[in-house]
Automatic annotation (TrEMBL):
Molecular-function GO term, any one: metal ion binding
Family: Belongs to the class I-like SAM-binding methyltransferase superfamily. Cation-dependent O-methyltransferase family.
Gene Ontology process terms (BP): methylation
Keyword Glycosyltransferase attributed: no
Protein name: Caffeoyl-CoA O-methyltransferase
Source species, domain of life: Eukaryota
Pfam family, one: Methyltransf_3
The keyword Thylakoid is assigned to this record: no
Keywords, alphabetical: Metal-binding, Methyltransferase, S-adenosyl-L-methionine, Transferase
Amino acid sequence: MASENQNGDRRHQEVGHKSLLQSDALYQYILETSVYPREPEAMKELREITAKHPWNLMTTSADEGQFLNMLLKLINAKNTMEIGVYTGYSLLATALALPDDGKILAMDINRENYEIGLPVIQKAGVAHKIDFHEGPALPVLDQMIEDEKNHGSFDFVFVDADKDNYINYHKRLLELVRVGGVIAYDNTLWSGSVVAPPDAPMRKYIRYYRDFVLELNKALAADPRIEICQLPVGDGVTLCRRIK
Ligand SMILES: C[S@@+](CC[C@H](N)C(=O)[O-])C[C@H]1O[C@@H](n2cnc3c(N)ncnc32)[C@H](O)[C@@H]1O
């Protein structure tokens, strides 16, 4: 969790980010040396707009945005999906990484927050890649699975929504992602609470979702259909590469 450092520097906290690094100064160093100087103007603008929103704790951090953008380019992703959009920071990082004919099926139960970021996405010239669906993601996945032609059709999926459904998403996404494609689950270290003793003081929502995150991490580690890599970026992100 963010805290004030020796210089009274609270910027880390202001961006609503919960770094897992031990030192806020080190995290700030990463942002200032490697992330902010290379952050596209549109992402900076959206980050600053989002920082003023009351739920800014939910946004993807700038370093994770940079990571996703690089990853998508490395795997030459073209057809992608995002579950959990909020104001669209990770969505914009994705849209900027895809080729001009790339696609993102973006789902969120809340359109209002997506519309906060939409003008920035439009100005960046990438809105044509996005197909936004308002509503819960699970029924959309179920509907897609009914049509064979959607099977194995996605190169990349970013899951950053209701943690109690991650296991349900996983079952479906494995049918929809191609062999060699990647599913990235966000918040898999859940503010570090995955190693906290069960009786440790925790915010209510952290406690509530903690068991689901623990269960997901175990299930992913044991799933022979994927290779995994858990990274301490942002709040922890686990990459799952489908191998069968
Ligand atoms: C952590 S935020 C997403 C952050 C976003 N990726 C970003 O870069 O700012 C989680 C989002 O999941 C959405 N959400 C919650 N339950 C959902 C569901 N069942 N289906 C789709 N979206 C859902 C919430 O409305 C919220 O906007």
